[in-house]
């Protein structure tokens, strides 16, 4: 008869050889196929050890069975001998000792039963020993082993126990469910942090592309968020861990993340526009920024400015291609501009290298005649102001002072700068007579004009209007014409000069400097020269109306603005 232990051994061995990768004990496990050779070797060794253990157990059992059989045989023999003896003695009617009682026979039988109980205890000890050996063998076999059950993976540690939580196996980290002990894959959350385990359960680190999205995992496997510096390059990951690309606003700044995720710094061209990202922080620059000894300006949206830009009340010109701020002279092809050292566009008068220039309110360089309201100036084609000499301009001669102001109503030896600035050779031929030439020359002096004007007011008792007769009479007296100081009316003045040989004329084309003009009997004044065919320069008492003693007046008609009548006739001295 085959022993029970032999059946168990054969069952185990058959299981190993019939399915090299499966073993069922308190559960099933599946050995990794890649470790097939290692398992076969281990099985051969374990099988030999098992055979040794079984032989020991069987030898012990055989010894016990032998002892049991010997004991049974002895007991049976003793009992049988005693009974036979008693029967024989009875049959032979030999007196049997009455001390041999039934109880003695019973005790003998109970002793026999105790021997049987001892045998059963030995059997139980053998079975327990066998079970203990089988359990230890199973634990040894499961130590540091993967098993697969119901398509789920588990791992037994060095003590043969199922692991849970984080476990380091063969230089990789794995995570086993804390409740079911099964190996986890894909995303897991642990203590508020996210991790990713590949299809083999291995915890991933560094850059990983998952479902088309890039993530970064720290050395401890945690999914990174926010700014991360990797290999000297900064990356930005959102709250879900996804790598950000393109423009991103954070705090008070914009950042640009390349298509591959790296934070951009320095110059960056996007959609034909240039931007500058701070070299250290990556923040998009807005406003003025100096780079490589040049200044650039970046608009509110970060775009590099080009061409003309109005900034904080000033105008600047940024290179239309490179964007660098221009200084000095700059032309747009039609006009010249001057940009100060800070780049701001110059306006008004500008002194450069000893020469003066004038820039209009729009910054364009002025050429030709220009007035500041008090004086006239002339700038040549290069924009420089002419000064300190006589210049022939547009067919006329002008004298320009050291500051460039055009000379008017003044003398340069025998030359006279008329009120319009044109210079003529001044001699008796410009007037009808020497008397009128002297009168004209005397009244070209600004000091003389003011003095005659002040005297006319005194002669009229301090009255500042209706002093024209006093003014002309005083001027004539200054050049030798003996007009009574009491002369007060226009009519009486005309009668006086007419009675002394002055010629009356109405042909205005014959009018010359020093002639005495009349507007009927309403007004009288001294002619100083034509401005054009209608207007002329005159001197009179109407400084309070025109702002100066010498001023323009409409000769050929009524001027409503000043309520001045047209000139009707004039007188000149012909001797």
Task: Describe the structure in brief.
InterPro entries: Cell_wall/Cho-bd_repeat (IPR018337). This protein has 575 residues and is α+β, with helices and mostly antiparallel strands.
Task: Tell me what the structure shows.
By secondary structure, this protein is α+β, with helices and mostly antiparallel strands. 28% of the residues lie in helices and 30% in strands. The strands form 16 sheets. The protein has a 6-stranded antiparallel β-sheet with strand order 32-37-33-34-35-36, covered by helices on one side. A 3-stranded antiparallel β-sheet has the order 29-30-31, with no helix packed on it. The radius of gyration is 65 Å and the shape is rod-shaped. This is Glucan-binding domain-containing protein (YG repeat).
Largest beta-sheet characterization: 6 strands, antiparallel
Strand content: 25-35%
Give the low-confidence spans: 1-40, 70-102
The end-to-end distance, rounded to whole angstroms, is: 180 Å
Large-scale geometry: rod-shaped
Helical content stands at 25-40%
Return Rg in Å.
Answer: 65 Å
Number of helices: 8
Keywords:
alpha+beta, left handed beta-beta-3-solenoid, 3-stranded antiparallel sheet, 8 helices, 37 strands, rod-shaped
List the helices and strands and how they pair.
Blueprint lengths: L3 H15 L3 E3 L3 E3 L5 H56 L10 H41 L2 E5 L2 E5 L8 E5 L2 E5 L9 E5 L2 E5 L8 E5 L2 E5 L8 E5 L2 E5 L8 E5 L2 E5 L8 E5 L2 E5 L9 E5 L2 E5 L8 E5 L2 E5 L9 E4 L4 E4 L8 E5 L2 E5 L8 E4 L4 E4 L9 E5 L2 E5 L9 E3 L2 E3 L5 E3 L8 H10 L2 H14 L8 H11 L11 H10 L3 E3 L10 E4 L3 E8 L4 E5 L3 H4 L3 E5 L14 E4 L3
Helix pairs in contact: 1-2, 2-3, 5-6
